[in-house]
Amino acid sequence: MQGFALYPFDPPGDSSALRTGLRRWLAEHQPQDDVVRRANCWASFDPDFSRALGAAGYIGMTLPARYGGGERHPLERYVVIEELLAAGAPVGAHWIADRQTGPLILRYGSEEQRERYLPGIARGETYACIGLSEPGAGSDLASVRTTARETAEGWRINGQKIWTTGAHLSHIMLALVRTEEGSERNAGLSQLLIDLDTPGITIRPIIDMAGHHDFNEIFFDDVLVPHAALVGERGQGWKQVTAELGLERSGPERYLSSHALFAALIDAAGPDPAPALAVLIGELAAEMWTLRQLSMSTAAKLAAGEDPMVEASVVKELGNAFEQEMPRRVQAVVECGWDDPDDLARLLRALLIASPSFSLRGGTREVIRGIIARGLGLR
Amino acid sequence: MSAAREMLCDTARAVFADAQEGGIAPIETAGFGLLLVSEADGGFGGDWGDANAVLRIAGVAVPDLPVTDLILSGLAPVPDALRAAATVGLMAGAAGQALGLSIEHVNTRQQFGRPLGKFQAVQQSLAVLACEVAALDAAAAAMAARLDATGLDAEAADFEIAAAKLRANRAVGVVTAIAHQVHGAIGFTREYDLHRVTIPLMRWRSMHGSDAYWAERLGRQVAGLGGRGLWEALTARAE
Ligand SMILES: Cc1cc2nc3c(=O)[nH]c(=O)nc-3n(C[C@H](O)[C@H](O)[C@H](O)COP(=O)(O)OP(=O)(O)OC[C@H]3O[C@@H](n4cnc5c(N)ncnc54)[C@H](O)[C@@H]3O)c2cc1C
Fold this sequence. Notes:
The structure holds two protein chains of two kinds. Helix content of chain A is 46%, strand content 14%. Chain A has helices at 15-29, 35-38, 47-55, 74-87, 92-108, 111-122, 237-249, 253-256, 259-269, 275-303, 309-333, 343-354, 365-375, and strands at residues 128-131, 147-150, 155-162, 172-178, 189-195, 201-207, 213-225, 230-231. Chain B folds into two domains: 1-78, no CATH class; 84-239, Up-down Bundle (Butyryl-CoA Dehydrogenase, subunit A, domain 3), CATH 1.20.140.10. In chain B, a hairpin with a 2-residue loop joins strand 1 and strand 2 (114-115). In chain B, helix 7 (158-183) packs antiparallel against helix 8 (194-206). Chain B is globular, with a radius of gyration of 19 Å. The two termini of chain B are 21 Å apart. In chain B, 52% of the residues are buried. Chains A and B meet through helix 1, helix 4, helix 9, helix 10 and helix 11 of A and helix 5, helix 6, helix 7, helix 9 and helix 10 of B. Bound molecules: flavin-adenine dinucleotide. Flavin-adenine dinucleotide (FAD) is lined by residues 129-133, 138-139, 163-165, 215, 357, 360-361, 364, 366-367 of chain A. Chain A: One of its GO terms (cellular component) is plasma membrane.
C-alpha cells in the first residue's frame, strides 16, 4: 500500500439533485429530535421514521427492484447516507440491515432468503443485528464457540453472543457460528440468518455507561432453525464475514457521528470567534474535509468491485481519532459546565461519554492498525 | 492515472535524477516552466493534477531546488496561496517516501532474531504513519480537483487550499517522529537518506502558512458559514 490509491467519487446521474431532494424530504419528515439524539444518530431507533424513509425509496437503494430495492448505484446510496448522518436523522432502526445484512443476503443468500427478507429491509420494517462477538471471542473473532449442529429437522444452535447492538429491537440476526464439529479458528464457521422470535433465544439487556440500553447478550438454548437459515456456503463464514466487515467499516458514519457537536460548536462560536476557537474550528474542519475525501474514495473503490479492507481501516482509524479528539478538544477550549443545560454542553457531555466506544465497536483500534500493517506488508 | 500523466511522471523522474547533479538547469531545459501554460500559449497545458504529480516526485528527488517557483512561473501573477498549494504536493511526496524508507528498513533490520517489522509495536506505529500519508494524499488530490474545477483560481479554492496545507502541516509532526523512531540511529546519520525527506518536511511546514495561520483563516471562514452551512458548502463545492 505505497500511497493510498484514490478512486474518483463519481456517482451516476445528478447527485446534487439527489441531495436537494433528500434535504427537502427531511425538512418535512425528520422528527424534531432533541439535539443529543442527533449526535451518533445511527444509534437512534425510530421505526416510524425508518418506514417513512423506506417508503420514500431511501433504504435498500442498491437492491434489485424485484426485492423492493431502488436499483441505484452504491455511490448514490453514499450521498443519501452522508446527508442523513449530517442531518442527524434517526436512522438506527434500519441501519445495520440496510448497510450490511441486506447486501450480504443479496450476495450470498438463497433466492428464498432474498424474497423473504429483502423487501421488508427495503421498506424500513425489518431490522437486523450482528452476531459476531462472544464472551470469549472479541478481537479474536476466530475463537467463536457458538455451535450449530445439522440435524434432520434443521440446525440446532447452542451458545452465546454478546454486545449485540439493537438485538432487542431487531427481527433477525446474521450470526457467525461453528458448524463443523472439532474445527478450529477460522475454518468450520458459517453464517446463519436467525429469526429472533425462535423459541430458545433469550435476549438480555446490557446497560452501557451512558445509561442506555443499546447492546445485549443473547443466549441460544437448543434453538432449532431450518436448514434454509444457512447463508451462503457452509464453512465459508469467515470469508463472508470479512466482506461484511468491509461494508461495516467503510462508511461515512466513521467520521460523521459527532457532526452535531461540531455544528453546535460553530454556531455557538458565532461569526467572529476568538482566535483559539477559530483555530480549533479550522483544524476540525480540515480533518473532516480530509476524512470525507478518504471515505468517498473508499466507497468508490468498493463500488468498483474491489476489496477496500485496508482503505476502510484507514478511514476508521482516522475517523475514530477525529471523533474522539473532537469532544476532548472542545472541552479544553470552550468554557462550559459539565451540567449546563444548553445544547453545546449536553452534546459535549454525551459525546465525551460515548466516544470511548468508537474505537472498540466494528474492530478495535489495535485490530484496525493490524489490518493496515498487513496492507503495508508487515504481517 | 492517465497515460499522459504517467508519461509526464516518467519524464519528471528522469529529469529530476539528472538535476540531483546538475541543479535546476536540466529541469528548466526540459520545459517544466511551461507545465501549467496553456497549449494555445505554447505550453504543455497541464492541470493542477499534473503539477501535483510532478511536485510529489520533486519533493523526493530534488527537495532543495526551486521546482515550485519554476512550475508556477508559467502563471502570473502567483498568489501566495498557490505556493502553499504547490508545497502540499512536495509534502505528499516526501511523506510517502518517509513511509517507504521506513517499511524497507523495518523489513531488513533485525533485532531479537527477527525483522523489526514483525514486532507489533512497530507495526502499529507504521500503521499510524501510513494513515497520515493517506490523509495527505487525499487532501492533495481533492485540492487539485477543486483548483482544476475553478481554473486555478486560488480564491475560489480557498477552503481546499487552507484545509490541505493545514492537514499536510499536521501530518509532518507524526510522519517525521515515527519514521525516525523506527529507523533508530541510522536514520539520524547524514549518510542515510531519511533526513533528505524529513528535514524538508519540517521546513515546508513553516513555509507559506503555519498551522496556526491556516487554521485561524479556515476557522473564520467556517464560522461565517455556520454549522449547517459548513455541510452545505462542503458538498456544494465538490459537486
Ligand atoms: C458500543 C458497542 C457496540 C457493539 N456492537 C456489537 C455488535 O452489534 N455485534 C457484535 O458482534 N459485537 C459488537 N461489539 C463488540 C466489539 O466488536 C468488541 O468489543 C470488539 O471486537 C473488541 O472485543 P472485546 O470487547 O472483547 O475486547 P478485547 O478483545 O478483550 O480487547 C481489549 C483490548 O485489548 C486489545 N487487544 C486484544 N487483542 C490484542 C492483540 N492481539 N494485540 C494488541 N491488542 C489487543 C484490543 O484492541 C482492546 O484494546 C460492540 C462493542 C461496543 C463497544
